[in-house]
Amino acid sequence: MEQYSNSQDTAEENTENESQEQLDQADIIKQTGSVRSQNAKHLIHCLNIIGQIEGHDILPSQTKTTKYEHILPALVAIEQDRSIEGLLIILNTVGGDVEAGLAIAEMIAGMKTPTVSLVVGGGHSIGVPLAVSAKLSMIVPSASMTLHPVRTNGMVLGVPQSMEYLRQIEKRITGFITSHSNISEENLTELMHNTQALTTDLGTIINGTEASEIGLIDETGSLHDALERLYSMIENTDMRYPDNLNQDSGF
To answer: Of 125, 133, 181, 212, which is the active-site residue?
Structure first.
């Protein structure tokens, strides 16, 4: 009778642990848009960047946002966790805060973890640096990307220093994009300052196929293609941060 009681207690405890894990996973998805697949060929962490990139200012509650204060520590945890073999970044964003977007992009670009980005829907404005920050960038043919100059909200002083400040920000963005893609700075700048494509703004909208053809995005493909490329990357990459990394150097 006592053995049966212990078994029953163990079963109940396991059920409670599984339920708690499911709740924790649901909370992670809700807060960060992140999912870790368990029963897969390789353990992949899926990071979802959607809506508007929220920076230092809180956006209205009815606006779908990706909060950089959630994404940055999540990327640190992913990079440290050696059980996570790869990172798949799903992008469907209208853009948003420039510095927050660049911060996330720089973090992704600086990871040793194999990374693949997949643009679905749209990867507009500051979503472009986010898309190219992965080791391999992909886009579905029906997706679109908008390239345009830096814009700002609120009061702007009509002095040369204001224009120079905006030029410096734009230089940071174009420099990052060109260093992580195959598009030239001249071609990128021309597309950003195009006056023929948008009715009320400068810039250019390109579809997935065009983004690949001009070298902005590495490849066109679907989710299946992105996973296959990520699996291949994992299988041809050495384990990051092995335990004996510093043994020979005396640390």
So the answer is: 125
Residues of the chain with pLDDT below 50 are 32, 249-251
Q: Enumerate domains of the chain plus CATH numbers.
A: 24-235 (3.90.226.10)
Q: Are strands 65-67 and 34-36 parallel, antiparallel or unpaired?
A: unpaired
pLDDT at 225 (0 to 100): 98
Parallel, antiparallel or unpaired: strands 204-207 and 115-123: unpaired
pLDDT of residue 164: 87
User: pLDDT value at position 16?
Assistant: 66
**Known catalytic membership, residue 148:** yes
Residue 35 is predicted with a pLDDT of: 65
133 belongs to the catalytic site:
no
Question: Which one of 45, 124, 148, 180 is the catalytic residue?
Answer: 148
pLDDT of residue 143: 97
Q: Considering only CA atoms, give the Rg of the chain.
A: 22
Whole-number pLDDT of residue 2: 54
